[in-house]
Design goal:
The structure is a single chain. By secondary structure, the protein is mainly alpha-helical. The protein has one domain. It is 72% helix and 4% strand. It is built from 16 helices and 4 strands. It has helices at residues 3-32, 47-78, 83-92, 98-131, 139-170, 175-198, 212-224, 260-265, 268-283, 286-308, 312-316, 325-340, 344-365, 368-381, 390-396, 402-415; strands at 205-207, 231-234, 245-248, 255-259. A 4-stranded mixed sheet has the order 1-2-4-3.
């Protein structure tokens, strides 16, 4: 056991205990406020709906505790328990090409990790989501989706992995710069292709019919100077009762997508306001800012890996006897969340800032009161808790807590 092993174990323990402490705070806070609707929502949210949201949050929190414990066991088994080392040795003695042996080992380990997550995902869908009336999925559809996702991951991910490993083997010490260029280029390409190539494999996208809603939305897009390749309704209700709306794609391949159950829940003015909020992310350049941030952090990650890969203690300290580029990539992916965990509040702070800016944009181009009423409906129908623990929310929540966000939007209504 070298010094890096001790550093990893200490960091892993601190992060695990702190994450569990945060989860316990959240559960205790939500439970303590279960029987009283917050003042800002007393006229719009019933006590029964508020209690359902609390119970749903607590049920997911308990499942999160189990998932966290299983994750701890999995990481320790794969690293210090020798799991990664065993799989890489298994592939090395059976596959002559070191490159293909590394690709096969990473693929096999990724598949095994996906299998380990399957029971939790199944329970979350067919027990918790079912209990609270959100699940619309069927076992056959669920399994089909899992197989499709694994197949796509293999068809797309394994060739990309092989290319990156070849770059690592072939271009010298600056491989990490080339690997970064390839990965970011691939990410941009997939973002561009996703709306027309990937998403339709899982859902049906129907162009929005002509009518009052499409006319209203087209008017909003024109006012905001936004061009897209169409407005589509997605059959989200075939899997879940949760509604949503999103933009997808890049450049001239952008699409606006509404879940069918969202369209059924909100009136036309509320849908316009929700869309105006999403437009605000584009017009305030949040997408570009997040892309730049992701690019910089990915480059830094590759740079750190480029240094670690030269250190024998990095491999031996994590239970791998024979150093390889493929093993280094997998090890780094597994342990990076441990060493970056306490940076998360920085990311969530800026994400919440972006949400406020998008709400401000929506208030300028639609009715703030309609965004408020639409959000309240979504909070209620999605059973989103109105009373999260403030410290938990500041650590994890990418969106401002409901009461804070509604108060911010109400200030626009008052000033108007």
């Amino acid at each position: 056991m070298n010094s890096f092993t001790l550093l990893f174990l200490l960091s892993f323990a601190v992060v695990t205990v702190f994450a569990q402490w945060l989860a316990n705070r959240q559960a205790a806070y939500v439970f303590a406020h279960r029987d009283l609707v917050p003042e800002a929502f007393t006229k719009t949210v019933s006590l029964a709906a508020h209690q359902k949201a609390a119970d749903y949050t607590l049920a997911k929190s308990k499942l999160g505790d189990i998932e966290r414990a299983l994750g701890v066991v999995l990481v320790l088994l794969l690293t210090l328990g020798g799991g990664i080392n065993a799989v890489f040795e298994f592939c090395a003695v059976r596959i002559e090409s070191p490159l293909m042996a590394g690709v096969s080992a990473v693929g096999l380990l990724t598949f095994l990790m996906s299998l380990s997550e399957f029971p939790v995902s199944w329970y979350g869908t067919f027990v918790i989501e079912e209990r609270f009336g959100f699940n619309k999925n069927t076992p056959s559809q669920f399994i089909k989706d899992e197989i499709m996702q694994l197949t796509l991951a293999a068809l797309i991910g394994l060739p990309l992995l092989a290319l990156i490993l070849w770059i690592m083997d072939s271009v010298g010490s600056n491989w990490w710069i080339w690997a970064w260029v390839i990965l970011m280029s691939f990410s941009l390409l997939m973002s561009w292709l996703f709306p027309t190539l990937i998403a339709p494999l899982f859902n049906k996208f129907t162009p929005m019919e002509e009518g009052a809603l499409k006319t209203r939305i087209s008017g909003l897009l024109e006012r905001c100077g936004f061009n897209s390749q169409g407005i589509f309704i997605m059959d989200g209700s075939k899997r879940s009762g949760h509604g949503n709306a999103y933009f997808t794609g890049l450049g001239n391949n952008k699409r606006i997508v509404f879940f069918d159950n969202l369209v059924a829940s909100l009136d036309d003015e509320e849908l316009e306001a929700v869309l105006a909020h999403e437009l605000g992310h584009f017009k305030r350049k949040h997408v570009i800012k997040m892309l730049v941030t992701t690019s910089i952090t990915t480059l830094c990650g590759f740079g750190i890996l480029g240094w670690l890969i030269q250190k024998e203690w990095f491999f031996t300290g994590l239970g791998v006897e024979h150093a390889s580029n493929a093993a280094a990539l997998l090890l780094f992916t597994l342990i990076a969340p441990t060493f970056t965990f306490f940076l998360q509040p920085i990311s969530t702070y800026f994400q919440r800032k972006f949400e406020f800016e998008a709400d401000d944009f929506a208030a300028q181009h639609a009715q703030a009161s309609k965004l408020v009423s639409g959000l309240v409906k979504l909070y209620e129908e999605n059973a989103s808790t109105l009373t999260p623990d403030p410290f938990f929310a500041s650590f994890y929540y990418s969106h401002p807590p409901a009461a804070i966000r509604i108060a911010h939007l109400d200030s626009h209504t008052v000033s108007a």
